[in-house]
């Protein structure tokens, strides 16, 4: 059985010791027989030694980050044979040293809790963000204590601060640093963690695998009375068979680029705010070939550093269009129409540059559209390049990054393929005829689909291709090009940084630009 490791991190006097002591005292880990507490920072609160005796808890103290080495957990296992380890981590230490340790496969990290006092958090984030950011970014739960005297408006801003750094973490306001009912699913014996984030991910992947298996069974079965089911599965599998090999290739390519290509020079050039920097902003996506989901943290970081708004928006809108992975996906999805890949690049660049120029001519500054929370966010820095060193480590990092990227992107492909297959099968033929004879209606439907489906830019070419039997080329191009620009989930994530009114105006501007660009393009195709 796996030995799980929980990490509790935060600054001195944040309440880590009290939080851990309440965990041990309140029974969240009562099923474990041998517990080891690794203390990396001795605070002002002492642990209850009687509790240690009662619960069979052993403790070790690390005085320096140099003691965090690959032999640490081997030594703990040899001496204590624990079935649960909890680490009180020093908030000023690089958390990647701990997360990057090589361990026996039976030892696994389970939770990273970031603890902070509510009243001092925003001030600390403003002054010590380079220390705090990696801890928040790698946490799956952030816990704030002593929040009773803090106004609801400040609490809301704190949640926005956290989400802008790590959208996936859960934010909990706990009284007296005590684990609340909301945290119960994160504790207990691994076998009993039915609702843990780890098991949720496993369930999602299992669901996708079952969906694929059922589809294969249905497509080769004889369902004369339910022929539409076979039609759905045929379309669904045809999209996946075409898309998944390329997604795997793209995942490896993206991981290699993120690990070995520095983005510092590009970001510096964008920050200058000159007319020439628009060209740099447009071409940046070629050297940062990550999907539109991965661009959100970069855009957030640029805005929080007060990078000129027009160039930043141009970078955001045009990056997915000039990405080599996106370009290759178009060639792969439309092999009989390779010119569409070039058109995607040109239209994406035009929409991005025109939007940026309009913002510049309107003299719209970053300070006018950004939310009150303006803390610096590390840009383009992935935990992968912190965890692995040396040639072997970099190879491991590429495979780890590719795996993460593949499973993250593939779920959008699966969902998009299923929606596409269902719509193409069940929509009445009269409605399909109405749509096919009305280009404007097709454009509106595909733009709406681009917003709501929120497919990844590295895979939406395959989804767009699946509509080619019922939609003409121009609306499909609109879906492919404008999807990453109007992605609903990305808009929601950026709403923590940009004012919602500006996002609505920007989305309207992009749609109007798209209507003009693709109407013009219709005369040539």
Description:
The chain has 24 helices and seven strands. Strand 2, helix 2 (49-55) and strand 3 form a beta-alpha-beta unit. Helix content is 61%, strand content 9%. Helix 9 runs antiparallel to helix 21 and helix 15 packs across helix 22 (473-486). It starts with a strand and ends with a helix. Residues 189-202 and 374-386 have low confidence and may be disordered. A seven-stranded parallel sheet has the order 3-2-4-1-5-6-7, with helices on both faces. It has helices at residues 16-26, 49-55, 72-80, 95-99, 118-127, 129-137, 152-165, 197-219, 227-260, 264-270, 277-287, 292-304, 309-322, 324-333, 339-361, 366-369, 384-387, 390-426, 429-436, 439-453, 460-466, 473-486, 488-494, 500-522; strands at residues 3-10, 35-39, 57-61, 84-90, 107-117, 141-145, 170-173. The chain is α/β, with parallel strands linked by helices and 525 residues long.
């Amino acid at each position: 059985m796996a030995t799980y490791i929980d990490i509790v991190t935060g600054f001195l006097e944040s309440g880590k010791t009290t939080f851990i002591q309440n965990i041990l005292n309140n029974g969240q880990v009562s099923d474990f027989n041998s517990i080891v507490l690794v203390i990396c920072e001795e605070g002002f609160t002492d642990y209850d030694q009687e509790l240690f005796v009662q619960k069979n808890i052993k403790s070790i103290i690390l005085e320096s980050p140099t003691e965090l080495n690959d032999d640490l957990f081997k030594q703990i296992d040899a001496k204590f044979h624990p079935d649960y380890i909890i680490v009180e981590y020093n908030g000023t230490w690089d958390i990647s040293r701990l997360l990057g340790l090589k361990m026996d496969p039976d030892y696994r990290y389970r939770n990273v809790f970031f603890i902070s006092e509510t009243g001092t958090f925003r001030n600390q984030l403003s002054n010590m963000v380079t220390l705090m950011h990696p801890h928040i970014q790698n946490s799956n739960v952030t816990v704030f204590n002593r929040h009773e005297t803090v106004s609801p408006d400040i609490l809301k801003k704190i949640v926005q601060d956290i989400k802008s750094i790590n959208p996936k973490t859960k934010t909990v306001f706990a009284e007296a640093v005590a684990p609340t009912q909301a945290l119960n699913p994160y504790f207990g014996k691994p076998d009993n963690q039915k609702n843990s984030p780890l098991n949720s991910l496993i369930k999602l992947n299992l669901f996708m695998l079952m969906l694929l298996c059922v589809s294969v069974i249905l497509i080769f079965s004889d369902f004369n009375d339910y022929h539409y089911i076979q039609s759905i599965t045929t379309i669904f599998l045809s999209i996946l068979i075409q898309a998944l090999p390329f997604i795997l290739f793209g995942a490896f390519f993206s991981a290699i680029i993120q690990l070995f290509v520095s983005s510092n020079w590009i970001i510096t050039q964008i920050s200058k705010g000159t007319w020439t920097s628009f060209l740099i902003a447009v071409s940046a996506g070629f050297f940062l070939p990550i999907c539109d989901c991965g661009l959100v943290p970069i855009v957030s970081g640029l805005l929080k550093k007060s990078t000129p708004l027009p160039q930043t928006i141009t970078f955001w809108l045009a990056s997915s269009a000039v990405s080599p992975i996106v370009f290759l996906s178009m060639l792969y999805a439309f092999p009989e129409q390779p010119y569409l890949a070039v058109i995607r690049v040109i239209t994406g660049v035009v929409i991005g540059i025109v939007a940026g120029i309009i913002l510049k001519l309107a003299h719209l500054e970053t300070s006018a559209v950004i939310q009150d929370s303006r803390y610096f966010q590390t840009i383009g820095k992935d935990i992968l390049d912190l965890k692995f060193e040396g040639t072997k480590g970099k190879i491991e990092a590429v495979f780890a990054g590719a795996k993460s990227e593949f499973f993250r992107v593939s779920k959008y492909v699966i969902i998009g393929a299923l929606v596409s297959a269902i719509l193409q099968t069940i929509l009445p033929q009269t409605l399909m005829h109405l749509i096919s004879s009305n280009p404007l209606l097709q454009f509106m439907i595909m733009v709406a689909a681009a917003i709501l489906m929120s497919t990844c830019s590295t895979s939406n070419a395959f989804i767009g291709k699946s509509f080619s039997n019922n939609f003409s080329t121009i609306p499909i191009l609109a879906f492919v090009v404008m999807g990453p620009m109007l992605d609903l989930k990305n808009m929601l994530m950026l709403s923590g940084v940009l004012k919602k009114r500006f996002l609505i105006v920007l989305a309207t501007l992009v749609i109007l630009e798209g209507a003009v660009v693709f109407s013009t393009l219709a005369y040539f195709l």
